[in-house]
Amino acid sequence: MGFPTYWMINTALSSRQQLFTEPQSLWLQFTNWSELSRDLDGVPVVSMLTNSAFIAIGTTVLTILLSVLCAYALSRYKFHGRGAAAFLLFSTQMVPQGVFLIPIYTLFLGLGLVNNLWGLVLVNAAFSLPISTFIIKAAIDGIPYELEEAARVDNSPPLSTLTVVILPLILPSIAAAAVLAFFAGWGELMYATTFITDRAEWPASVGLSVLVSQPGVSMPAVMAVSVMFAAPAVAFFLFVQRHIVSGLTAGAVKG
Amino acid sequence: MTARADAKEPLRLRLVRSARNGMTPVMLLAGPFIFLGVMIIWPLIEQVWISLTDARLTNPSAGEFVGLQNYATALSGSALPRVLLNTMVYTVGTTVIALVIGVLAAVVVNMKFAGNSVVKAILATPWAIPSVAAALIWLWMFSQSRGVINRGLEALGQDGIAWLTSEPWAMVAVIAVTAWQAVPFVMLVTLAALKSVPQETAEASRIDGAPRLGTFQWVIWPHILPTVRLLAILQVIEALRKWDIIAVLTQGGPVNSTNTLVIAIQRQAFEYQQLGMGATYAIIGITIAIVFTLAYLLLERREEKKNTR
Amino acid sequence: MGSAREFPYRLSAAALLTGSLALLTACGTGGEEADGEGVTLTLGNSQWLDANRGEGLWEAVSGFDHASEHSVERVEYPSGDIATTLTTELGAGEGPDVMFIQDNVFESFVDADFLEPLEDAVEGANLNNTNEGGVKDGTRYGVAWQRAPFALLYNSGLLDEAGVEVPTTPEELIESADILTEELGVQGFGDPSPLVDDGRWLQHINIWTYGHGGSWADEDGNITVDTPENIEGVEVVKDLYDAGIFSDEDLHTNRAAFAQGQVGMVDEIGGGALVASLEGGMDPQDIHVADQPTPEPGYHQQLYVVVNANSPHVEEAKEFVSWLVTEEGQEMLREASGADPLATDVPVTEEFAAENPWAEGFLEVGSHTQSTLIPGHELQTTEIMTLIMDHVQEVLVNDIPAEEALAAAQGDVDNLVGSGD
Question: B146 and chain C: CB distance < 8 Å anywhere?
């Protein structure tokens, strides 16, 4: 399971000559920095990662905001069309994202969201929203009504019930949904390459696909960017994973 | 719970009532659904219309109405059955493998041993690696003459395999990579479910003399089953939409053996520029997916009824 | 032109967006309007991103800055996505003022009325035959930017060491490749296997079918898939495949391997030779080029310069094209283009030719290669070729006779073009 990750680092640290003229060393080497830095010259690594982070964080915040509202409504209210709303929500999750490329592009043109990182935030949030709602709704479903009832005696408005009573209890699930949304935004490629043509706005996924489509591609450079692209996400993930695990099961394991 | 006279009426009922005279659920749902409506639901409806036209990529909204001709062409051709079969093999393959390995990994990691957290971290990592980056390193590892996988096989005295250019290995390869990325997620979620198995129950059954496997089968498995089912549906959804791994590794080849629905839609719409036909593929795919969703929702509802009774 | 492609319903959908969304859009794209006479032209090309020659090409076109009162600004597209992204942009009435696009994209843009006629822009220019495809129904919409013919590139150091001759027939190719592998342990022939890279082989098969006099349609657009010439070409591919001389790696890896001196022969374009020459993995003096080992010439890829009909600066964009085909523009472009044939017959510099023995070979080969677009079915070329390659793969993998497979392909293609148009 861990080997491909190691091999990614190993390849990044190899020289092109080593990769093609001899069997790739099984051990890490640290003698090819100059070749690597030459190959990465002109690749805006820092801005790529910053842009990816912007998209990922924006996606996460927007997704969570909207999906908490959605999940609460779907979980706690009985109203006409609830089934239909839930169904509509989940069926959108089944659609391949490429299908929406052109309609969303034309929509964004009118709104000035092409070549704009906010546009990608909206796109990724739209795609993450259903699954996030799914997870958070499951968590709210698992909270006994009585808890809310106790808070409602003073006739506080439902939104404050939501924030005061429900939110603290479903934090792990929110963390779980947040991680899913974060990675969806962090790694997304299809929309990013179509919507972003300005080098300063490239997220890391686009930068990587540019490197890959070079004539005479430099495998170590591709792998180096891959490592840099993966590292922050892996670090973030390892940091939050202990919090999310309980969240994902909160709904599924009732009782 | 203190018994209060005015709180006799169950909250659920009161909420229903407030929903009737107030606007609350509508208010809550308005934002998200307007957002989704503009970004996804409306374009989705548009797709239905486009699938009835001969629209091309160069004139997305100016196609001419052709009725069901695209559907007739798609359903009568030899390509679609193959694509659907591939999609099924890929979806079932990745889901089953990811679930089996993920659950096993969770059981192992759940045992107490030295280095447990390091093992867990290493096992968890692939999930956080962006798909494109993951696909690229596997592409290099699968290389027939320079790849480390065939080097390993040769060191064991086996012949190298043309992983990405022969049947059925290409499908095996894309399933393996997809599952590799999905296992950590399954593992972590299952792990959490395992942690919530009441210790007394598990221990009690062990004292009763039940064998370890029996404990798992009769005590632990029923407890984590709902989790596993949730994971299965999430994984199926993921597999139905997965695009980047196949696009990087095989582009649907060889001889269309990894050409799944998503790849086929992409090909129709962007390579052939046949938006109408691409939309037709998409609608056919969505229809199939919706049947699955419905089945799942019905199953869940029946379960809910059973629980509340 | 633009008004025919409006999206009224999308705009009404946009109006539904809530205020919070509108807030987000406040930081939209900035409008640029030059004061005075000069404007800023946007030039969209994937090549600006090429590590080896991107900067050079950009410097060449930047010469227009000095030659006119206007200035130029580059718009960069990853090469894998440029076709889709430009089509999406132009379909919505957007896109850069000037674009540099592949011939198949050019065809679809002409068909969709995206492009501005260029007759008056190139009046008096000394255009050569690489520009022929830029004329559609008597109107010129494109000027050749670069042509990239495929020729047999070889590493003379390796061939000499193994004691093999440059092959002139498929049999000799197999023989030479085998000797190279046996004697030196290198990849004898570096073309990716027809099973590796669907996209590339849709064109690459033409080396062997064109090479035996085949074509996929006659001048009147009648489909000619199952002709004896094509059958012979596919049988050759089958022989090469069965001999196991194709490489298992994709195009990029093979190119990198050639540049490291690990490949004896490969079908390549000038850009691939340039990479090998600049990488430092082998002596540029060892890079040579020969005709394909087939009786007839193979194919080329072609890039056109075109002007966006929806551009607010159409006239200025045409001025750019006019400048590009002047002697000055062509000489600047030549310096950055290696040995690719250009819109006019501008020779490579003596210095470059001396350093790169392969350069003049490509100019020569490029004068008689053919386009990959299928006459009368240019827009459906990719789709037709996918159908054909599906059947060719059956020949390779499942040993279906070439004759049978191409007969089936002929049927499929007839169905497609019968229903498609």
Answer: yes
